[in-house]
Write a structure and sequence with these properties.
about 120 residues; alpha/beta; Rossmann fold; 5-stranded parallel β-sheet; 5 strands; globular; Bact_response_regulator; CheY-like_superfamily; Response regulator; phosphoprotein; Sig_transdc_resp-reg_receiver
Length: about 120
Amino acid sequence: MTKTILLIEDKPTLQDTLKSLLELYQYNVILAANGAEGVQQARLNQPDLVISDIYMPVLNGYEMLEQFKQDTVLRHIPVIMLTAKTEIEEIDMALEKGADGYVTKPFVFKNLHTIIKKFLP
């Protein structure tokens, strides 16, 4: 059964690259350009996993995490944050707000895929 990943990323080039890499591993990929769009797509499509940037327009990743955790339909979906922020405070805040994983940019896709496989065996 094909697993669905919601990718929330505001940079089109990175979004396209990640989508292509994920599709190589047979994932169905849904795209969103910001947290608000991501919450909407998650409610519509109920993905198996979310990969999200933190700093993006409209609704940032922290605000999106809060909405996910307050929503009975979305709270069970694992969320991996993918961001350039490497400070321990940023990592701690993401995990406190409900992130299930944290990967810093730049990243090696193999490492991201290893984390994805923890949630989508």
